[in-house]
Amino acid sequence: MRIIINGNRSKGTINKNIYGHFSEHLGRCIYGGLYAGDNSDIPNVNGMRTDVVNALKDLNIPVLRWPGGCFADTYHWQDGIGPKENRKTIVNTNWGGVTEDNSFGTHEFLELCRQLGCEPYISGNVGSGTVQEFSDWVEYCNMGGISPMASLRRLNGRDEPWHVKYWGIGNEAWGCGGNMRPEYYGDLCRQYSTYLRNYDKEHKIYKIASGANVDDYRWTEAVARVAGHVIDAMSLHYYTVPNEDWHHKGAATGFTTEEYYTTLRKTLYMKTLVENHTNIMRMTNPKHKLGLVVDEWGTWFDVEPDTNPGFLYQQNTMRDALVAAINLNIFNDHCDVVVMANIAQTVNVLQAMVLTEGEKMVLTPSYHVFHMYKGHQNAKQLETYAETKTVGCGDDQVPNLHVSASQAANGSVLLTVANLSDTEAAPVEVLWSGIGRCGKVEGTVLAGASGAYNTFDAPENVKPQPMSGIQVTESGFTAVMPACSVAAFTITE
Ligand code: AHR
């Protein structure tokens, strides 16, 4: 099967923020996952788990969204600053009803971002907060001179502003963020946006409106119409859930072949959603090119047996690896409109990068895909074409191959390929034009049974291996993609 890379056609630069992540106060994502706390025996730096931070740093995480999610519209940031012993508690009413001590707040989140070397993206509280509260948060983070909030920040030990660029104006305003109608939210968005100020000409903030759920195109149209001129981007949330019944979404492991293909078919729907929402934004607001921020995506399965149903803890298999690969390929190929994406969620929740248990940590197959794809960040997207055959089960038919490619500033080309068939290997012949003098090809492949996963006792069950059998030809190369696999090929001079 041929895969063509056309170096003469590109949609532009792949925004590195497409490789962003999301971490909510939910289950063990923050507490126990990213944050061990100041008095933990687990090795940490200023409370952040060293093992988790090191693993995530290796992904070159560009941007991290926090504190939610649904949690964001219950969160009052001033309860999470100042001496920890004086902080109020908060009951996490969305997720498990647990009481949190607010020991992880604004300073801790921004310290985590510093350690990860990534940009923060803060979702403010519109659902149960006030305009003043949100406006103060921006001033607290970004005001360099003298002001009430800058003084409060200094009192809490931080002199310099953090210059937080990305601000979300609420989250899922159509649901847990206030059950609003789009026109009403659009008006609120205008009001909030007015008071989210720039405190420094060099560091303009970037405002992201709460966007649609899945295919709610009416939401996108109305918010873009009412508030499009006061924001920079709109979000989109789309989770891959195998079964329609939300109470029986399907197990993360031990799934059937049918569920495997349903999951992949539903993942491919992301392309349609990205294109339709963008077209609506463009038609509604042609002068102001709003970006699309897919700030929640990934698999959502039933929680693992005997775990808190509100904690959304699920295992992560080769099926998840394919879901990650397909979504990232789609985002790469829509880099002219997708300005950011954030997989849900970084640690211990939904489609996580790493899982922890006490002091143990394991990398998931999804982690490995992000690692193999990191060369796409800020590279020039290249047009690709893949000959495919249809594979699947019953009504769930999908193309066997899914690809994207990009060229880095140094001329090297990264081609990422997923083989969706759970049983059949796919011999590929890769041909290219317009990418300069290329003659060396190296590959890495992540492969396994569709249900294969890593555990704390067998952490390397699924891990990337060098791709063997690559044959360089006059005009490209050949290789064989194993069944159910993701490969990254680097083509250099
Ligand atoms: O990621 C879990 C939840 O999914 C988020 O809190 C919410 O925004 C979405 O419904």
Description:
The protein is an alpha/beta fold and 493 residues long. It folds into two domains: 14-377, Glycosidases (TIM Barrel); 382-492, Sandwich (Immunoglobulin-like). Helix content is 24%, strand content 28%. Strands 1, 2, 17, 20, 21, 22, 23, 24, 25, 26 and 27 form an eleven-stranded mixed β-sheet that branches. An eight-stranded parallel β-barrel has the order 3-6-9-10-11-12-13-14, surrounded by five helices. It has a two-stranded antiparallel sheet with strand order 4-5. Strand 11, helix 6 (217-227) and strand 12 form a beta-alpha-beta unit. It starts with a strand and ends with a strand. The protein binds alpha-L-arabinofuranose (AHR). Alpha-L-arabinofuranose (AHR) binds at residues 24, 68-70, 171-172, 296, 344-345, 350.
Topology:
Layout: E1 2-6, E2 12-13, E3 20-22, E4 44-45, E5 48-49, H1 50-57, E6 63-66, E7 90-92, E8 98-100, H2 106-116, E9 119-124, H3 131-142, H4 148-155, E10 166-169, H5 182-195, E11 206-213, H6 217-227, E12 233-240, H7 257-284, E13 291-299, H8 318-333, E14 338-344, E15 354-357, E16 360-363, H9 365-373, E17 380-386, E18 390-393, E19 396-399, E20 401-407, E21 413-419, E22 426-433, E23 440-447, E24 465-466, E25 471-472, E26 476-481, E27 485-492
Parallel strand pairs: 1-22, 3-6, 3-14, 6-9, 9-10, 10-11, 11-12, 12-13, 13-14
Antiparallel strand pairs: 1-17, 2-17, 4-5, 7-8, 15-16, 17-20, 18-19, 20-21, 21-27, 22-26, 23-24, 23-27, 25-26
The structure holds alpha-L-arabinofuranose (AHR).
